Amino acid sequence: MFGKILIANRGEIALRILRTCREMGIRTVVAHSKADVHSLPVQLADESICVGPEESQASYLHAPAIISAAEITDAEAIHPGYGFLAENAAFAEICRACGITFIGPSPEAIRLLGDKVRARELARRVGVPVLPGSEGALKDEAEAMEVAEAVGFPVLLKAAAGGGGRGMRVVRERETLTAAVQTCQLESAAAFGVSEIYLEKYLEAPRHVEVQILADGAGGIVHLGERECSIQRRYQKLVEESPSPAVTPALREEITAAAVRLARAAGYENAGTVEFLLAGEGRFYLLEVNTRIQVEHPVTEMVSGIDLVREQIRIAGGERLLWSQDEVALKGHAIECRITAEDPATFLPSPGRITAYLPPGGHGVRVDSHAFAGYLVPPHYDSLVAKLIAHGRDRPEAIARLRRAMGEFTLEGIKTTIPFHLRLLADPRFVEGAISTAFLETFL
């Protein structure tokens, strides 16, 4: 096993990785920007090293600085967390060339599954359902029109690379398709460096359901059930839970088998998530594959009892899975709320200094956060300040526990989305599980 790991990330995920490393007896180095010099991960790490200024392009996304930091500190492996360089195939290749273990899948798997066009092609070959749409990347506006008229409006244009809602457009009428294609190509090129886009049928108000997988280097693959991630705003997830209230045992068997089948066909290794859109009557379609640890991984940990970060490290170190599929036991229900430094009414960023911080506790409650009283939330990065997770015997108990814990959460000095989550957790439609990706459009 590794003696020292460099954590190439910040915030709550850097702290989350650090804590597991410490439990495993592995020394840690936190690579940080100038903005994060006083952060909690930096304070608690065995070592820290500054890799650049506040801007992420010159620090957390600057591969030469990260590699240099690992070499200077004699780190044997790099854990990228999520975001930043976590799904960068070129960075994973550089790590390999430098003799540093990248804690994640191979560059080949990242490149294959990170390209949504190639992932769709692979899914078709192995019998995983995909939405009707273009066979590959669109050649021009004329092909886009031909495919759109074949599958029927509305359609969705999507960048072949990247995610997060960039390079995406819903097109409801043929008159606006040409302009939308041009806009998406420009956005994709600006955000991801490639202008390739594809087209697929747009589903009105589906559910977003994803399957957590673990795969080792010896061909062992297991799934750890599914997560419901339908509460979203502008394609950004706000609340996640496991299991999904919409997935029946029969559907669970079908959708998890599809996820494992796709991962096996891709030669996948390490932790990953296969995401689906769930339509009516149990129909599901591949959305994308995230080749990294997810923000919402704690809900899976709560129902499975498995430390996903520990397993990432074990697998990267050449060890095999500890369980067969029959030995994976999922118990109860878990829900996570992402608390961000944003105005709860407008969702505008609210960086600043936290003057008071008292997280909730109690049975079945977990808080993943790097915040503390006196911490200055910087304006340069994602606004996530805490994840509040509750676990119960069933969904009603998990909601009641989460509502109680959210009401106890003290976080002052900045605006946060705690009031928004309290409203959501009291909404009868959410309590009933009557949700979709369009839920917040009416709720807000």
Total domain modules: 3
Total strands: the figure is 20
At the third CATH level, what is the topology name of the largest domain? D-amino Acid Aminotransferase, Chain A, domain 1
Which architecture of the largest domain does the CATH hierarchy give at level 2?
Answer: 2-Layer Sandwich
Key features of this structure:
single chain; alpha+beta; Rossmann fold; Dna Ligase, domain 1; D-amino Acid Aminotransferase, Chain A, domain 1; 34% helix; 25% strand; globular
Report a brief summary of the structure.
By secondary structure, the protein is α+β, with helices and mostly antiparallel strands. It has helices spanning 11-23, 40-44, 63-72, 89-97, 107-114, 116-125, 141-151, 177-192, 249-265, 297-304, 308-316, 395-408, 418-426, 428-432, 439-443, and strands at 4-7, 27-33, 47-52, 77-79, 101-102, 155-159, 169-171, 197-201, 207-215, 221-233, 236-242, 270-278, 284-290, 333-340, 352-353, 356-358, 365-369, 376-377, 384-392, 410-412. The protein folds into 3 domains: 4-103, Rossmann fold, CATH 3.40.50; 132-201, Dna Ligase, domain 1, CATH 3.30.1490.20; 207-443, D-amino Acid Aminotransferase, Chain A, domain 1.
